Amino acid sequence: MRQIIDVVPYGHDNAVTRVELSRRTGLSDRDLRDQINKSEELIINLQDGKGYFKPLPEEAPLVETWVKIMRSRICEENKRKISGSVSLRAAIRTVDGAELETSSYIVIR
Known about the structure:
The chain is mainly α. The protein has four helices and four strands; from the N terminus they run αααββαββ. The protein has helices at residues 4-7, 18-25, 29-38, 60-96; strands spanning 44-45, 52-53, 98-100, 106-108. The strands form two sheets. Strands 1-2 form a two-stranded antiparallel ribbon. A two-stranded antiparallel ribbon has the order 3-4. The termini are far apart.
């Protein structure tokens, strides 16, 4: 089994999809993403359909674009977490305010 760092090409023009990387490495999609995330060398995907690549020095503007994409993704994930925790708190309040009857129905007080 080959390591991801060995098969990801340099340069956006040479980008490779995850399906192709999985074929080349024999790694599952999950293991592939894990190796990409843990890589000591920068591997990026601009979400443009071309796939993953290691940026060349002259591709600094593409790295800046990738940073913006990642910041946006993190912001959206944080919003989902906040929304989820608000929903979870509401569910806990609902359950805490309910009593179980012998018929297994929840009665809201």
